[in-house]
Design a protein that fits this description.
The protein is 46% helix and 18% strand. With 157 residues, the chain is α/β, with parallel strands linked by helices. Strands 1-2-4-3 form a four-stranded mixed beta sheet. Helix 2 crosses helix 5 and helix 5 packs across helix 6. The chain is globular, with a radius of gyration of 15 Å.
Length: 157
């Protein structure tokens, strides 16, 4: 139950923000916590850290929203007869994560962890469009983050 991470760092505009990026081992641990919690075998995930421009372009192209966002999830849809363990891609917008962590007064590493957990759940088919789905997904996030010694990210909602 290990996440095999293809770590891509495509963000280099701000050295201060660059220093906040989690390492590959941290990202692996966070994504693996999701797989372990849900008793899912090894999966490959690409995690790409980007700037506002790339996030905004992808968000506009794939969701019709013309603004950068914290995390985008792109599940890989493999034909059933092809035995691949590729789960999909996560695109994490570094400036948005930094801004949100500051606004929410939480450690930036905790917010990165939350977005990796949140995005990995999306790759596994979880969503938060309907209230019942949101409640289930948030409950999973809270439980997984607690195992990582990270506070409930929704406690101030």
């Amino acid at each position: 139950m290990v996440a095999i991470i293809d770590y891509q760092q495509a963000f280099d505009a701000d050295q201060g923000l660059l220093a906040t990026l989690p390492g590959e081992a941290q990202v692996t641990a966070w994504a693996s916590a999701v797989l372990s919690h849900l008793h899912i075998g090894d999966k490959e995930i690409t995690v790409r850290f980007v700037n506002n421009d790339e996030s905004q372009q992808l968000n506009n192209d794939y969701r019709g929203k013309d603004n950068p966002t914290n995390v985008l999830s792109f599940p890989f849809e493999c034909p059933p007869e092809v035995p691949l363990d590729l789960l999909g891609d996560l695109v994490i917008c570094v400036p948005v994560i930094a801004r949100e962590a500051e606004e929410q007064q939480k450690p930036i590493a905790d917010h990165y962890a939350h977005m990796i957990v949140h995005g990995t759940l999306h790759l596994l088919g979880y969503d938060h469009i309907e209230d019942a789905e949101a409640e289930e997904m948030e409950g999973l996030e809270i439980a997984i983050l607690a195992k990582l010694a990270i506070d409930d990210p929704y406690q101030d909602d």
